[in-house]
Amino acid sequence: MIKKTFGLFGVLGLSATLAACGGGGETSEDGSVSIEFMHSQVEQDRITVINDIIEKFEAANPDIQVEPVPVEEDAYNTKIVTLASAGELPEVIEVGQDYARVMDKDQLIDKEAVQTVIDGVGADNFYEGALKLLGTEDGSGYTGMPIHGWVQGIWYDKEKLEAEGFAEPESWDDVLEVAKAFTEGKNYGIAIPTVEGGFSEQAFSQFALSNNANVLDAQGELTLNTPEMQEALQFYKDLSQYTMPGSNDVTEVNDAFMNGTVPMAIYSTYILPGVFEQGNAENIGFAIPANKTQAVYGTASALTIAAGLEDAQKEAAQKFVTFMAEPENMTDWVLMSPGGAQPVSNLVTESEAYKSNEVVQAFGDLSTEIANSFNEIQVFGLVDGKNFLKMGDISSSGEIPKMINGVTVGEQDVEEALTTAESNIQKVLQ
């Protein structure tokens, strides 16, 4: 599903007046407790997997009943707003990293309950990068327990590069050299997003952060128009000479790589299921080109616990989320979309069920390489362990994708585009 490929849930501001409480479940006179679990996995095969996990939990905890609440992704944020306004948030909620920060801002998350779960499971069992993505603005806690994620990099066709004498591109210069060599006629050297949308911001951020250019500094101040950011944007503009013309989005980038028009593409791990279906798993490589450092863009999905619960519901929610963190259950969750969804815990990557999955096995050592790349994750607005909430406002403004589209498709001057974007973002943040 394309929408699960780039951004699990978009950022939709919640009203400051929302009731900071949840509680869709109830406690019976006999002491049994029911809680609700809201998630976005609406495909029937995934619902079956989740319901099986719930059945196992209920068998081990006969005094707790878990009611699954699957919600279509397009309606997810609206559903949260509606339920939060009524004080009826489900006790346990699947949520993406960006929306978790929005919920935290509106005091809809019980961070102490989440911390208790992570401490119980063991923070060391999760990849550091996944935990960083779910960190609070002050860096003191987490907005959810990671359950799965995905990472983005440059995917390349090994045979095509080897035929032209190229090894894996390890630097910006390597990427440019390969892209230039393969660009001829209607064939291009690399597929990159240039659309005025979130995909472009995600792809560009990987290069910017590898040049030590972030949108915010350690104090949360805007640092868009810097020499490092200018250098990164100029590189992205130069690279766009060797991609398909026009405003390329998810479909264009994926199609160009899958049909052989390009030997390289910037995309998430959700490209892998298609590669597997083509029987080409052994021929795909994954590169994280560095300049001053390495930077991988990625996301983490989490299970969070609603604030304001009664003690019985809170305890039941913690038990359920802890149960979901057991290796067998996390592995079952990740393998609902093998290859695309990636483990965020070494408990999964080390499990026999994960290692023996046919898709995971098909990609061999690449599966381990991708999982380990979670520790290289960097994203705009995450600085020194602090996830600044204002980054959501910046991304929602659309100014960064507009800037990228302007210099790539519109051939705008890099310095001019940065100056305009910074000015417009400053107005948003006032």
Report on this structure.
The protein has 430 residues and is of the alpha+beta class. It folds into two domains: 2-150 and 299-371, 3-Layer(aba) Sandwich (D-Maltodextrin-Binding Protein, domain 2), CATH 3.40.190; 151-297 and 378-429, Periplasmic binding protein-like II (D-Maltodextrin-Binding Protein, domain 2), CATH 3.40.190. 45% of the residues lie in helices and 13% in strands. It contains 21 helices and ten strands. It has helices at residues 2-5, 44-60, 73-85, 97-105, 111-121, 128-133, 158-163, 172-182, 198-210, 227-239, 250-258, 272-277, 311-324, 327-334, 346-349, 352-355, 358-362, 365-372, 390-397, 399-408, 414-429, and strands at 26-27, 33-39, 64-70, 92-96, 145-157, 264-268, 284-287, 297-305, 382-383, 386-387. Helix 2 links the parallel strand 2 (33-39) and strand 3. The relative contact order is 0.17.
Summarize the structure.
This protein has 430 residues and is an alpha+beta fold. Helices cover 45% and strands 13% of the residues.
CATH topology of the largest domain: D-Maltodextrin-Binding Protein, domain 2
Instruction: Count the DSSP helices.
Output: 21
- Overall strand count: 10
Structural class: alpha+beta
Largest sheet: 8 strands, mixed
Mean pLDDT: 93
Strand content: 5-15%
The gyration radius over C-alpha positions equals 22 Å
CATH architect. name of the largest domain: 3-Layer(aba) Sandwich
List segments where confidence is low: pLDDT < 50 over at least 5 consecutive residues: 1-13, 15-20
Oligomer description: single chain
**Would you state the CATH class of the largest domain?**
Alpha Beta
User: How far apart lie the N and C ends?
Assistant: 37 Å
How many domains is the backbone divided into?
2
Give the overall shape.
Answer: globular
The CATH homologous superfamily of the largest domain is called Periplasmic binding protein-like II
